[in-house]
């Protein structure tokens, strides 16, 4: 499906690395591996905010016989750790596996931080880059970075979930804001690996609800005649205060054998309430190559009982990867066939949809509301 307004709004070349938080303590040569997966919200002044994940990477992680990762230390700031090449698997330039363990242990050659960028009302122009409000590691559980913001406004408060990465744990953290620009860390809300937690934009029966997607290295098989496939799926959780979460017992959105998302699915945008129910966009992955093909699908949920799926469109994606949009960045691409949708805002006759394109740049799409009729 194609739309007349569909373009790249921000990419790695738009970032001034002299204003990166890493410059506080390391002077190693770095570059922007990706500026992508933007959370999206409307600010009180009517403009839009995209909260961009900036993956800042070492240009030369390998020096002589050693490979290096970037890590934030509470005492020393940003540091480089060195490992002997014969002790790691460095086949992926973005990370490497340390071999001397009975389980997978990884280190990253990049570190992610969040950059707030203000757009105009329809998301077609950049108005301001708020380097003074960068979100960077500040607790030990964020030593390898802060990733993939999702922003939801409930009442007068903006709630932003992020993935915090460390040797301690791979967890979900919550930030809050009253103006949509300056965020305060509230701490860990999910104490396990969960890549796609996003709050509903409004309470249901006086409770907060959220999409979650717990991850693991082991999944159990469904019955052979089941319509569902094992693997990462979207779950529901509820909370009295957005800090303490209880998973909903019933299963929710799962990959189906009859769909085109046969590898895995995960939450995308914050669910927003429409006159037909809660509208959410999510990503589904088709098996192909090493990474797979990431596309965007959608669902409608009952307004009063979000566990009840009214409509599920998991056959034909509404957004697919657009490599043509990245022609000006083709020399910097390292993955293809990936669109990762992360934000949704009502703009009258259409929705503004924010996505990460090819783990490299930020894409804005105007989707007419009749698409969801």
UniProtKB/TrEMBL annotation:
Pfam families: Glyco_hydro_130. One of its GO terms (molecular function) is glycosyltransferase activity. Keywords: Glycosyltransferase, Transferase. Transmembrane segments: none annotated. InterPro entries: Glyco_hydro_beta-prop_sf, Mannoside_phosphorylase. Belongs to the glycosyl hydrolase 130 family. This is Glycosidase PH1107-related protein. It comes from Fibrisoma limi BUZ 3. The lineage of its organism: Bacteria, Pseudomonadati, Bacteroidota, Cytophagia, Cytophagales.
């Amino acid at each position: 499906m194609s739309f007349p307004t569909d373009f790249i709004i921000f990419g790695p070349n738009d970032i001034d690395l002299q204003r990166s938080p890493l410059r506080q303590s390391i002077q190693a040569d770095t570059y922007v591996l990706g500026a992508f997966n933007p959370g999206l919200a409307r600010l009180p002044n009517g403009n839009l905010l995209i909260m961009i994940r900036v993956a800042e990477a070492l240009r030369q992680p390998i020096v002589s016989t050693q490979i290096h990762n970037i890590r934030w230390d509470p005492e020393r700031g940003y540091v480089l750790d060195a490992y002997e090449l014969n002790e790691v698997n460095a086949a992926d330039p973005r990370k490497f596996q340390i071999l001397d363990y009975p389980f997978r242990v990884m280190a990253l050659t990049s570190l992610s931080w969040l950059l707030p960028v203000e757009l105009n009302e329809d998301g077609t122009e950049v108005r301001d880059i708020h380097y003074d409000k960068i979100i960077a590691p500040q607790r030990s559980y964020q030593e390898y970075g802060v990733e993939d913001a999702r922003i939801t406004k409930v009442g007068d408060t903006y709630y932003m979930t992020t993935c915090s990465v460390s040797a301690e744990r791979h967890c979900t953290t919550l930030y809050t804001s009253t103006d949509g620009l300056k965020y305060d860390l509230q701490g860990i809300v999910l104490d396990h690996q969960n890549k796609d937690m996003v709050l509903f934009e409004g309470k249901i029966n006086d409770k907060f609800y959220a999409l979650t997607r717990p991850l693991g290295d082991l999944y159990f098989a469904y019955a052979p005649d089941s319509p569902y496939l094992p693997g990462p799926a979207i779950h529901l959780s509820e909370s009295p205060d957005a800090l303490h979460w209880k998973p909903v017992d019933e299963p929710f959105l799962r990959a189906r054998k009859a769909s085109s998302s046969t590898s895995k699915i995960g939450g995308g945008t914050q669910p927003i309430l429409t006159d037909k129910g809660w509208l959410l966009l999510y990503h589904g992955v088709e098996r192909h190559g090493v990474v797979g093909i990431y596309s965007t699908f959608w669902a409608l949920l009952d307004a009063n009982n979000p566990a009840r799926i009214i409509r599920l469109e998991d056959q034909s994606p509404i957004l697919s990867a657009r490599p043509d949009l990245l022609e000006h960045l083709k020399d910097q691409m390292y993955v293809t066939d990936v669109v990762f949708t992360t934000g949704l805002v009502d703009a009258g006759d259409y929705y503004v949809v924010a996505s990460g394109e090819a783990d490299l740049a930020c894409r804005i799409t105007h989707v007419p509301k009749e698409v969801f009729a």
